[in-house]
Design goal:
2 copies of one chain form a homodimer. In chain A, a hairpin with a 2-residue loop joins strand 6 and strand 7. In chain A, 24% of the residues lie in helices and 25% in strands. The first copy, chain A, contains 6 helices and 14 strands. In chain A, the strands form 5 sheets. Chain A has a 5-stranded mixed β-sheet with strand order 3-14-4-10-11. Chain A has a 3-stranded antiparallel β-sheet with strand order 6-7-8. A two-stranded antiparallel ribbon of chain A has the order 1-2. In chain A, helix 3 packs across helix 4. Chain A is α+β, with helices and mostly antiparallel strands. The two termini of chain A are 13 Å apart. The longest helix of chain A has 16 residues. Chains A and B meet through strand 1, strand 2, strand 3, strand 8 and strand 10 of A and strand 1, strand 2, strand 3, strand 8 and strand 10 of B. Strand 3 of chain A pairs antiparallel with strand 3 of chain B, so a sheet runs across the interface.
């Protein structure tokens, strides 16, 4: 149940971490000098090289936040819309919302449910579980490098499995550094009730998605009730402040100061289950 | 119109800042040693003393994020529920959602519209413009200091005018430091589609609430479309990571590294107008 400032007790099967201690200081640094990511690039190697250039090491508890667009580009998630044959339903929806039927077709293929329709936008539940506009498909900067003339327009899908992408990057960097770190794959989402986009985690490796404070004591000795913080989303939002957008070309942010116990988490932990949803 | 990862063009009259430049590094520090805030406390003076104790100065572009609970306590926003006479409507709603009718009465007095009802929770549009559960009224830690026995239970309302609260704190600190700074009043909100709470800005002084990137060029020379970042909300979310909750008693976080041009902004800039709302 959505509780505004508070969140109700966890459902059975939800995983929460109780081993987090916030340091009183958090430092976020965007890695400079990363190249424009190309299909087949090894992001972990590029990140390791970027860290070496800045003289930064990786320490236990560090988190790297990687923009989903960089992951998608490395994984070659480009789609030439000219190759997409829209279904009758996509054509009809495209007319209804005034949007290219091939783009609508791509959104429908990535979605499990339509939540709302508006001009040029479909708000859908993505097959990965979250609710977002146009299934997170990016139509800006979406051309692959050296795309032949006469192809496109291009779209860029989200990574196939962002948790797995985060996990691969984390394992490689951990092997290189011997530090137990966390990795998040982030995206910018709009919000139903508030203006402006915020960073959220769509892929999680080793970082607790949710931080369960229930059972801790407040200043007055009473147990804190109902307090579960969207830890991974807040880290992604903080990273978005330094990552900027494409103009700066800073798709990777290094976060230091959050002491967490690494574990098995998923960005799906952050998605409100449909049966608890009062709005979609 | 809600666009997921993107937000559509601003409406006339919306204020946006184009003078923000993100440094590649952001540092967030929770001020240690602040006392439990009491009605009548001068928060700006307490913050200045906290900064002096840590040897930190205030520099141009620094932001202080102050938890709404601390502001509410300083402003004496305590309510003894025993003094509240619930209306018939509050009694009926209280029975319906299984909640103390006096608490429901308080929520209704703070709200302009009910969005959803669920067990023990009313999701409402607050008179300040945002949508939140139970109008942001806090029932934990809500007793004032030295409350006489036999009174209560107590609730703590949000500040009467959080923009004005942020502005007062900013002006005092600016006079003490000669640095042009920003101040945010933050709260933790739940979200309709995602689990866990995140920090949001409910009071804004001098910091651009929204960061309008439209018209900037992306890496490939095309104009970035539709990109408006919820700057103040992301700063509040980042600060929430170091502020912790009541147990740590860290209601104030100092943020350095965001270069912004101070201006006249309001937390209302972050509230989606009802006519653009596809959900409430």
């Amino acid at each position: 149940v959505f509780r505004g400032g508070k969140v109700t007790a966890a459902e059975p099967g939800e995983r929460h971490d109780r081993g987090i201690a916030c340091e009183p200081r958090l430092e976020l640094t965007a890695l400079p000098g990363l190249p424009v990511i190309r299909p087949g690039d090894d992001l972990a190697e590029l990140i390791a090289a970027g860290l070496r250039r800045t003289g930064m090491d990786l320490r236990h508890g560090d988190i790297l936040v990687v923009a989903s667009k960089a992951v998608s580009r490395a994984e070659g998630r480009f789609v030439d819309l000219a190759t997409i044959e829209p279904s009758d339903r996509a054509r009809e929806l495209g007319r209804e919302i005034d949007r290219d039927a091939r783009m609508v077709e791509l959104v429908l293929r990535e979605a499990s449910q339509i939540s709302r329709k508006a001009r040029e936008v479909l708000i859908v539940r993505h097959r990965l579980g979250f609710i977002s506009a146009n299934a997170g498909i990016d139509c800006s900067n979406a051309a692959p490098p050296h795309a032949p003339a006469g192809m496109g327009p291009w779209a860029l899908l989200l990574p196939e499995d962002p948790d797995a992408s985060a996990d691969r990057i984390r394992r490689t960097l951990q092997n290189l550094s011997n530090a137990e770190i966390g990795v998040l794959v982030s995206d910018s989402f709009g919000r139903p009730f508030r203006l402006g986009t915020v960073g959220v985690a769509i892929g999680v490796s080793a970082v607790p998605s949710l931080w369960d404070r229930r059972g801790e004591r407040d200043l007055f000795g009473r147990a804190l009730e109902h307090t579960i913080t969207a830890l991974a989303d807040q880290v992604a939002a903080a990273a978005d402040l330094v990552a900027g957008q494409a103009a700066e070309g800073r798709p990777v942010v290094h976060v230091r100061g959050l002491a967490f116990t690494p574990g098995e988490y998923s960005a799906k932990d952050l998605c409100r289950p449909p049966e608890q949803d009062l709005y979609a």
